[in-house]
Amino acid sequence: MAFASSLSPSYSLPNLSSMPMNSITTLNKIYPSSLLHRRPIFRVCCNSQLQGRDSSNFNLFASVTSADVLLDEAVEQVRLPKGDTWSIHKFGGTCVGTSERIQNVASIVVKDESERKLVVVSAMSKVTDMMYDLIHKAQARDDSYVTALDAVLEKHKSTAIDLLKGDDLNKFLERLHQDINNLKAMLRAIYIAGHATESFSDFVAGHGELWSAELLSSIIRKSGLKCACMDTRDVLIVNPTSSDQVDPDYVESGRRLEKWYSQNSSDIIVATGFIASTPENIPTTLKRDGSDFSAAIMGALFKARQVTIWTDVDGVYSADPRKVSEAVVLNKLSYQEAWEMSYFGANVLHPRTIIPVMKYDIPIVIRNIFNLSAPGTTICRLADFENEDGLEFTVKGFATIDNLALVNVEGTGMAGVPGTSSAIFGAVKDVGANVIMISQASSEHSVCFAVPEKEVKAVAAALESRFRQALSAGRLSQIAVIPNCSILAAVGQKMASTPGVSATLFSALAKANINIRAIAQGCSEYNVTVVVKREDCVKALRAVHSRFYLSRTTIAMGIIGPGLIGGTLLDQLKEQAAVLKENSNIDLRVLGLTGSKIMLLSDMGVDLSTWRDQLEENGEKADMEKFVRHVHNNHFIPNTVIVDCTADSSIASHYHDWLRRGIHVVTPNKKANSGPLELYLKLRTLQRQSYTHYFYEGTVGAGLPIISTLQGLLETGDKILRIEGIFSGTLSYIFNNFEGARAFSEVVKEAKEAGYTEPDPRDDLSGTDVARKVIILARESGLKLELSDIPIQSLVPDPLKDVPSAEEFMEQLHKYDQDLAKQRQEAEATGEVLRYVGVVDVVNQKGTVELRRYKKEHPFAQLSGSDNIIAFSTQRYEKQPLIVRGPGAGAEVTAGGVFSDILRLASYLGAPS
Ligand code: ADP
Ligand code: ASP
Ligand code: MG
Q1: How many angstroms separate the alpha carbon of residue 204 from the centre of ligand 3?
Q2: How do residues 308-328 score in pLDDT, each as one tens digit?
Q3: Do residues 848 and 770 make contact, with C-beta atoms less than 8 angstroms apart?
Q4: Of 288, 507, 714, 901, which has the highest C-beta tally within 10 A?
Q5: Could you say which DSSP state residue 374 is in?
Q6: Which ligand is closest in space to the CA of residue 274?
Q7: Which stretch is the leader sequence (predicted)?
């Protein structure tokens, strides 16, 4: 059997390696009409004839004319049967990354049941990078290009040895060696000249595809099938454009395809991706990642039934799966959506892939070669699937482009002056820069656009020169460059015209505290784009992605004070984490926990089943700033919360700064809200102005819904008249048990032994803790009070205030039992009991903490254990106060209160509720 490829045109170089180098002056002199202005020639010898020949003796360009004649005569013989019988498959670099993978591709091609198929292959993975690297090295006169070229040779040689045998192998190796020798000579020339033109680079870079196509076609032939190998430089004719892109010439390419097919007719064709020729037959490429585009052009030329793009992921994801682990595969995308996704950086598809196939309604299917069971993503006309499940498509996915700069041209002289925009973009076009996004304020005072960072210097210079006069006359105030930007695009059919979508997008960004530099919305119906700081980009991507319910609400948590309450919270989180993920899409990740001495940091989340051991074994020296930075500056979780489980005012003093940085704060620590009024007001103002949340339910009544009840009443327009309650679990216990003939000191002792009191019971008996709760509720109700404004009736007898130790205090307390016993007696005489309460008298704008008497049937008199009870008297609840009652102290309930604040935060951030 004659090898189909033996008739294929070949573009070989004169044997440069044998040329004396000093004869090379410029590269153009070496390749005048040969390589760079080559014309198709045909290697009219079969493989065996090639063997043993001196490579410099064949493929001479003198043979061009006769070959052309041969070709033209053949044209009419076999016509290309265009249409549905053809399927196009494209295999990306990773699909052909190793010999096993190439073998696998061959078997997929062989098994494919299409009547006819054209298979476009990329270079083996990394090979194109290696080829460009050779050029860069040679240009930089770095000798190591020689060893780098050896590595390229070795990679293909060993792959071929793995895959081929006998004649097939020899033929391939001969070609490989010949190509490598020529490349060596060419690179040597580039090395001497210190420069490579684009055509030279394109010629070198395209070799990876030539070799992989040759290998794949040989293997397919090994299975007994006829298979032609197409060097697409003979068929695909493209015109270079100014912006590093090429435009296919479909008419000329179609003509050349007919010619080629008449000489190489076969039902299986393996074609090189990426490479093409200019109309002058100069080798060129479709630019990086261009093999997808090659496949689409082939699809259009063959009018194929379908183009399948095989790659290493299950399809087009709702966001780059390397950046958003929760991204989901999209089953269907419209051509426009796919185009927008790829244009804005989803490199799973080359952006220009869509245009050729769209014209003929040829669907593209993206499939994973490593997961054949995944159906992949189908890209087709919207009308083909829009009514399938009645879904209204809004946001489909998100993509990002990095390394951009924004240029902002501003000035009052721009408003209403026709031609300003065209002058701006004319200047940009003159420097050949690619404008990726434009946004113009409706006031016409500024035009803002994004260009690749590497082009911004030239753009700014061109604009400054173009508008020199306007700038000096003050008509333009400035041409500002904002470097280090990224674009984040949300893509979806009609999303820009669907009410609410943009608002949701922007609020998700605001909630993640991401500053938007520019917005372009509505320029196409399919996308909304925002420009953000580059360092915020991944975070922004995750925030918006999760907001649109495409992934879980993920919150990075930093826990301060893993003691009794913090430790209990961590244990509760551990128990509940899986359920939250499963049922509510909430993913809580503890990225750090810190005590006063040591802290534990983790990138992905501390394993909560072993946090105690890890803290002990892997803990590092506590450092609050480092801790906060670690938890907040991770680039993959959009929201951060710090949970302060201490009672420390120095920790509370950080809240303002944290909230300002966009960190949410949840705490049972009373110190911030009961500290200096001015600081409290600053904190609340900041919280109201930003999208950052500050929740502190645990500060009053542990997990009981006291703050939230109060807030709910206020927000719905009720007027608070008075709040009265037993706010201390300890004092509740003490007075609930201070009955009959029992001495006060005896009950305090019992409470202490049962663990109800602070280590020094005076901390409870002094009433300051209750006063802090009163002040928190008073301020929440709108009163501007300081802690010192609250009169506190202390239960610590004056002489015992300064007794040094708790033990001594306990020993002496009995001496003062008399006073309280008397008060109890008096109360009992009128059917009353003593209760230690806090009162917020909103009407008279004051608060008190004192021992009061209540009728035995009053709800406060009927408490048991250490329960808290709080009564809200309001305009709505005037006759019968609204009462909240229940356990108001203890690690379990306090941690539970903190936990429910965390979940409230998650639902504010978008978790389903
Ligand atoms: P090939 O070599 O097969 O052409 P590419 O590396 O060019 O493969 O494209 C596939 C890669 O694109 C995936 O491995 C994935 O990391 C990346 N990618 C970026 N954005 C997306 C997206 N939205 N969906 C799927 N893949 C994406
Ligand atoms: N091999 C080329 C590249 O890496 C083309 C492609 O793989 O799409 O850019
Ligand atoms: Mg690709």
Answers
A1: 19
A2: 999 999 999 999 999 887 788
A3: no
A4: 901
A5: S
A6: 2
A7: none
